[in-house]
Each structure stands twice: as structure tokens, then as C-alpha cells.
Amino acid sequence: MQYFNLAKENYSKYGLSVIQLIQIGKFYELWHEPYTSSRQQAYSQAELLVERSMRGGPLEGTPPIEQVASLLNMRIISPGKRSLLQMGFPTYSLTTHLSTLLDKGWTVIVIDELVTGKSGPKQRAVSQVYSPSCNLEDRSVLAYVLSIYFSQDDLLGITLFSAMNGHSIMFPVSWRDRDKVARLLISYRIREIVIWANSGGGPEILINKIYTLLIGWNLFPPEPNAKIEVMGEALPHLPCYMSYRY
């Protein structure tokens, strides 16, 4: 139960591209309950670029445990009478698998057993959070987070930040001058994108502007059939937080 309670909390903190590994003795395990409702929605790139009224339904989302098992070439098991699905690997191989998972855009949350010296059920807590732009154990690449704020007056607030060395750049740019930013972004290894927006012009207009911007900055997949998982879409009169990966 603790595993799935933490998973729900971590989805709201870090988005849907989260893998949660829990320590069970000398292994880290990933769990999944089939037939449970999911906030994960997947669309093709081509579907996202048409008006919402013309879109089909979301594509069938592949559960994270199946994606990870395929990526790491591991087997999924279903022990006991419960429908719970599990996969895992020895704790000593975490570092090896981390680089593979982060390269594919996953955020990895590690839940370790606590040494309490007391008898009874094992106590566990989140010990590490790794993301594509924040892996302090691998300093070979200086990765950045790109934050984009859409205001209601066609002004963009841009922030580039690296957790590796604390370097950050912040500046405003008008929508009309947005192409000038593309030349700057070429110099940075952007691994994560966070978008915060006010939907003053209506949600459909806002979503289209976001995609137009990311395409112009070469931060959107060019393949029409690329599958994109979307955390949420703008609602009228409400700010919008959007996260996606492909």
C-alpha cells in the first residue's frame, strides 16, 4: 500500500514519466496493478497538432513496468493469487540501469529500507530522486532544465538551469522574437522541459502555441507517429502545467 500511495504523490510532483523502485532485501522492485485507472494519456505527434475536436481518443498507453522490462531486457512476474505485476534487479546493479533509464527520459525514485535496529515490519522512505537533468552521480554531461512561462501578453519567461553546477540564465522574450532563442538553446544540453502558462487566449490557442514554439526550437519529435505522453491540458480560466516526453 505504501508503494502505491507514494506513486500517486510522486506523479503529482514529478509528472507521469516516473519509475518507482522499492528495496526488498537485496533487490529493487517495480510494481504495477493491472486494470487500474491511469492519468497517463498517449497521443501521436500528428494527433496533437490538430484541433481537439478532430482528435481521436488517446492511444493505448503501455504500462511503465512493460516499457522498463523491455528497455532493460527483464521479465515480469505475477507472484501469488494477486494480479500484482513485479520485476526487479539486485541493488548493486542500480547504477548500471540508471543511465539507461535516464537516457530514455524517465525520472527514477528510489525507496530504501531504513536501518532502525527494531523488530517488526521494515520501514522505508524515499532516499534518492534521479531525473534526466539531475543525476549527480554522472557529471560527464552538463544537463539543463528549460522552463517556459507563457504570460497573457505574448511575453515568454525563459529559464535555463543546471542542477549539476547551479548555473542559471533567466530572461524575457516576446513571442515575435522567439526564433532568436533557438540559436541560444543550441549551446545547451536540454534534458527536461517544464511549461507553465496562463490560458488567457483559450486552451486550444495556448496548446497550439506551445507546440509551435517547441517545433520551432527543435524540441518536439519530428516523426508523425512518435508517441507522446501528456500529463494534462489547459482548462479555461486556469493556469496550466504541462509535461510530456517521447
TrEMBL record:
One GO MF term attached to the UniProt entry: mismatched DNA binding
Entries under InterPro entries matching the protein: DNA_mismatch_repair_MutS-lik_N (IPR007695), DNA_mismatch_repair_MutS_N (IPR016151)
SUPFAM superfamilies: DNA repair protein MutS, domain I
Keywords for the protein's UniProt record, in alphabetical order: Mitochondrion
Domain spans labelled DNA mismatch repair protein MutS-like N-terminal: 72-135
Domain of life: Eukaryota
GO BP of this protein: mismatch repair
Pfam families reported in the protein's UniProt record: MutS_I
Protein name: MutS-like protein
